[in-house]
Task: structure prediction
Amino acid sequence: MSSRSLRRRDDGFDVFVGGTTRDLLRTVSLIVWDPAVAEDVVQESLLQVARRWSRVRRMDRPAAYARRVATNLAIAAAERRATERAELAAGLVFEPEDAAARLALEQVARQRDLDAAIGRLAPRQRAVLVLRFFEDLTEAQTAQTLGCSIGTVKSTCSRALARLRIDLRGGTSVEPDPTQSTH
Amino acid sequence: MTNDTLSSDVAANFRRRAALIDTTTVERIAAAVSDARPRSRRGLGIAGSAAGAAGVGGIVIAAVTLSGSTPAFAGWTASPSSATTADTTSAAAACSSQLASLPGGPGSVTWSPTATDVRGPYVLEELASGSLSATCLTGPTLTSVSLGSGDGAASSTGTPGGGDPGGTSSTTNYDPGDALTELTLTSLNTQGGVPFDTLEGTVASGVTAVSLVLSDGESVEATVSGGLVLAWWPSGDKPVSAQVSTASGTTTQSLGTFGPGPGAIVHGNRASGAPDPGHMSTNESPNPHPPAQGGSSS
Result:
């Protein structure tokens, strides 16, 4: 192996991948709501970072750049699969016939309903919730990641929570708000 | 349910889902990315069967020299001139038009020039759109674009009806502390079989000028702007070293060997067998002085 080839392998990218893949996969999984798609999106995101690694590695926060790439790819992937996912979520509704079982499963059912309701959010709404409540990013950091204004983050978050509340109260499938599917 | 309660429940839901991600999946992705990491940034090619005939590794230089005007690249200069707003805008329009027509490309997205190199009537431009990047050479007789995309491995696509695209692209990373930190050399042929090379890369802070020394001893002054270095020349000769100027003086940096072998990792597009991640098209006009518009890449 040539010395230059060795140099190529020692530029820190593999270490970066090792340290960021898990976090990226968590975030992307929560946005796309589909583990298989999430895997593809993370891989694509890291390869996009690889293409610009010589510049990215000199950034103050390379991981933030990778998260920005991954988040936006995840939203795009989720939007492409929104209809399919809504159909899948509808198919997962589980109604136990036994009353005792219903009581015992009430807690699980609440979680299931919330899970399904989150899955029915528009991808961009879900991305805002993930960045705010899972990543614990500030509104400003969330805006920077998504490439939008802080006001948009606030309104998107508010609408997402309102939508969840309505969905959980009514127990009906709500189609994603089309106005939230793009910037 | 209050907002606080609901947001707490949402956060708990996210944590539960995230906890389901297993280490095996993470390791599988990391390994796949490391294996698939691009060794070359872009796929390049030329429209038309004549270019295909010239092909990868078939670069033969005869009539084209750096010192004189050639029919293919008349007006090329070894030193760049200052890019005017008109140069940048006109080239960006031509390049954007051709990029929009790339099969499988991103369509009509907004491209912004990040660096511009002007030599006579030709403009070489680096463009960016979000996480995408592209390189475009446009002039009186051609508009050539290459587009980097997701997986970034080296490959190329010909244009519809065109022959094998031909062309190679190789990226070399240099030692930390070197003035030139990364260079990507792409070697192409025009549809008429005239070779030309483009070089782009990054420089360390403080670098003010770069003069490339080619294998035939000729020099090409590069454009240095915003941490980027950009140049092209119509001969097929490869750069072997660079005279790098900073505030403290001028030093010489060896560039190693571009091409197969230890100097750089190269994908010959035809032989790489890599998936098709990039897109490239070159539009050459039979009219020697058409408007600078990209048009169809077929």
Q: What stands out?
A: Residues 1-36 of chain B form one domain. Chain B touches chain A through 50 residues (CB under 8 Å). DSSP finds five helices and 15 strands in chain B.
